[in-house]
Design goal:
This protein has 267 residues and is mainly beta. It contains 4 helices and 12 strands; from the N terminus they run αβαββββαβββββββα. It is globular, with a radius of gyration of 19 Å.
Length: 267
């Protein structure tokens, strides 16, 4: 008789449960990142955020590039390069970031982010170059380079520990044409716990280029708030907060797919 590995045996399931039970908290991943926060137009920021989230009054957008060592299993660790474009939002008593786009270099990471958390992850070419004094990062998808960040360290900042929150939606697109969703989408809150060992303030520049597949350039840069580079560790966890009506999310579902035919809304 043969063996098939598309199904787990009871021993496999027990081993998985033991591995999860042995971890009292999520794994820490080594991370090196580069981040730019900028202010955009308030109308543009609110237009891309689904209810029940509300864009923050400061209309801030965060663009983060990262190089992360992720442990897939005790025997396998992979390096992932990623970017995260997010909008500052308010919800309940925890302000955070609504995930607008998340290009990543790893198929495994994309699948886990989309299926487990509902994050808008997509495969992309992400370059992160920290050799020498300057630091640069760029993203290319569908043959178009649409995002770039460059910086030069000008000041060392104190190490810090901080917790941030991200928001996204687990959605269930309908099997039937024109129906929308098979069940209500779920609002998810992510928790990012940073242990930052080294931080540098950068003098930097951010470039947003036109792309019909990743239209980040629709959010104009009005003022650069901060540019930083950091090294440390990151823990990520998340939980479902509540269901939301499908009509609230339907105008935004194309954000996680590639639909260059969208005309968009006037702001």
């Amino acid at each position: 008789m043969g063996r098939v590995r598309y199904a787990k045996s009871m021993r496999d399931l027990e081993r998985s449960e033991l591995a999860v039970a042995s971890r009292s908290e999520p794994r820490r991943h080594a991370i090196r990142s580069m981040r730019c926060v900028f202010e955009t137009d308030a109308e543009a920021a609110q237009a891309v955020v689904p209810r029940p989230l509300e864009a923050g009054l400061d209309s801030e957008i965060s663009v983060t590039f990262a190089r992360v060592a992720v442990e897939i299993s005790p025997e396998v660790t992979i390096e992932i390069r990623s970017a995260c474009i997010s909008v500052r939002v308010e919800y309940d008593d925890k302000a955070g970031w609504y995930l607008l786009a998340m290009p990543m270099t790893s198929e495994q990471a994309v699948t886990r982010a989309r299926e487990r958390f509902g994050a808008p992850a997509k495969l992309a070419e992400v370059r992160f170059d920290a050799r020498g004094e300057s630091i640069s990062a760029r993203v290319e998808r569908m043959g178009t380079e649409f995002l770039g960040l460059e910086g030069l360290p000008v000041e060392d900042l104190p190490p810090r520990t901080e917790t941030e929150y991200g928001y996204c939606f687990k959605a269930f697109p309908s099997c039937e044409p024109g129906k929308g969703f098979d069940q209500d989408p779920q609002l998810v809150r992510l928790e990012w716990r940073h242990e930052i060992e080294r931080v540098q303030r950068l003098e930097g520049s951010l470039e947003l280029k036109e792309s019909p597949f990743d239209p980040i350039a629709d959010l104009p840069i009005r003022r650069i708030v901060a540019v930083e580079a950091a090294e440390g560790t990151l823990q990520t966890s998340g939980r479902v907060l509540r269901p939301v009506p499908g009509d609230w999310l339907l105008p935004f579902m194309h954000q996680r797919y590639d639909d260059p035919s969208v005309d968009g809304v006037e702001v």
